[in-house]
Amino acid sequence: MASFWFISAPLAGHTDWGGMLKTAQYLQASGHQVLWVSEPPLEGLISAAGVPFAAIAATGWAWLRPPPADLRGMNPLEAMFLRYRRALDSWLSEELIPPAFEAILNLAQSRGVPDLIVTDPFLSAVAFAAEKLDVPIAVAGWVAGQPLHEERLHAVQADLSRLSRERIARLKARFGVRGVNFSEGAAPAVQSPHLHISYFNRAWYQADPEPLPQTQFVGGRVDLPTTPVPQWLAEIPQEAPLALITLGSVFTGDLGFFSWAAQAAARLGMLPIVVLGRNPIAPEKKAELKAALPAGTRLLSWLDYDHVFPRLKVIVHHGGMGTTHRAAVQGIPQVVVPHAADQRAQARRVAQAKVGLNLSAHQVRNGQLLPALRAVTTDERVLANAQRLAAELAALGGKARAAELLTALAERRA
């Protein structure tokens, strides 16, 4: 049997990517040695999932505070550069990566070197440390894209490209590695030369360039619940149409979004379920939100997807990959309002697959949530497309196929 490390940033959403944690559970149930590595805040979540956990002091991921300046008052180019620079700092910080690199090497010294490391797509420290340990990596939830050429970049993007390449060059020199786990081209990123696992299908990326051959599409399947039905859900009549409204765990401060979406769902005869995520908001703000929600709305901090998703009529969300994937495998129509980063790409792909709509913040403020919800829950083509996509994803094998691919790669090393 092979030994696997799964390493993620200390965020609940970074354990998913469509199936990362479920794949770890499947490998463990199959008799392999599995260890989840992250910072202490994730220990409770991973341990509750039945996967052994090892805490390290740092993973190299930066949890960024809100920008100090009002971006709307800045020169547009300066504001764009600040957004891109902050995104770069989150995964390629020259201050945070070295201690994470050392923490991973120290863990290998105390626990032994694994046969394979499965990584969150945004952990540069893992890419450097795995090369130093001579351990192959597999990237969970992210395709290996074609190299991007500099002439296709805007001026601001070209500046960030130069910065990222300079940082990687300095870190390679510092660690004494060649950078084999980074992509070439103008937009370097963590990239395995061996295996990238996407929990969608190729058609999901229909408008994107052909991915590199190490990308494997495994789709996903619905898992039956293994825990009792939550009491609050059991009290809701089975025939009640439910609308889930969430912004994940990061963008919980957008209280207007929650209230507007809940009001729109209630006007269409649905019972809203508003999930704030694990990032708490101030008590007075939560009280303010409660007062703005329609009667009967369930306001929660956390949600058991396995129980709730089979009962949903629609979901309104931010476009996080895990949430988007779960709605896709369940065949639920989606209204996506992206807030940052890859969420915009997920929202675009939801619209391209014709399983939902992609709304901008401007459209939300101008009252488009109500017609959007009405459209995706009544258009027979959208409903049929959602069911067809779910069937296509299930046919690819999901976590079982992902585990098969990872095992084959690990055993080549062993």
TrEMBL record:
Outline the extent of the Erythromycin biosynthesis protein CIII-like C-terminal domain.
283-395
Record InterPro entries: EryCIII-like_C, Glycosyltransferase_28, UDP_glucos_trans
Database matches in SUPFAM superfamilies: UDP-Glycosyltransferase/glycogen phosphorylase (SSF53756)
Example of a GO biological process term: antibiotic biosynthetic process
One GO MF term on file is: UDP-glycosyltransferase activity
One Pfam family of this protein, by short name? EryCIII-like_C
**Coiled coil feature spans:** none
UniProt-listed PANTHER family: STEROL 3-BETA-GLUCOSYLTRANSFERASE, STEROL 3-BETA-GLUCOSYLTRANSFERASE UGT80A2
Please give the name of this protein: Erythromycin biosynthesis protein CIII-like C-terminal domain-containing protein
- Tell me what organism the protein belongs to: Candidatus Thermofonsia Clade 1 bacterium
Identify the taxonomic lineage of the organism of origin. Bacteria, Bacillati, Chloroflexota, Candidatus Thermofontia, Candidatus Thermofonsia Clade 1
